[in-house]
Amino acid sequence: MNRYITRGIAQNLPISLQKQLWKLVAQRENEQSEELEAIDYFHIFQFNMHNDQLYIKHQQERPAYVKTHKANVKQSIDINKGYIIKEDDVDLSYYIMLLPNEY
């Protein structure tokens, strides 16, 4: 499946952190398919610094899901939230990573 990022993501999120977010989405969707749960198309990521460590809070609404992960980067970033949305059309399915102001 194709994956896209917006200009805001490209300019504000390190590539290693982008890769980690893609991996978290894939892991979550694998968990949901194994549990035969409906897969939510909307992933919310919040970024928080604590004791010089960046943390990622991964959330979904249906079914309710919240999990916090250590980021694989130590530096702070200039954004506090990002989304990954799965688009399913008849002929095309893809993911897009974007900032809230690009939604």
Written account of the structure:
The chain is of the alpha+beta class and 103 residues long. It has one domain: Nuclear Transport Factor 2, Chain: A, CATH 3.10.450. It has 2 helices and 6 strands; from the N terminus they run βααβββββ. The chain has a 6-stranded mixed β-sheet with strand order 1-6-5-2-3-4. A hairpin with a 4-residue loop joins strand 5 and strand 6 (93-98). It is globular and about 40 Å long. 11% of the residues are buried. The mean pLDDT is 93. InterPro entries: DUF960. This is Pyridoxal phosphate-dependent enzyme.
Secondary-structure element order, N to C? EHHEEEEE
The structural domain count equals 1
How large is the count of helical segments?
Answer: 2
- How many extended strands? 6
Q: What is the end-to-end distance?
A: 21 Å
Shape, principal axes of CA atoms? globular
Organism: Staphylococcus carnosus
Protein name: Pyridoxal phosphate-dependent enzyme
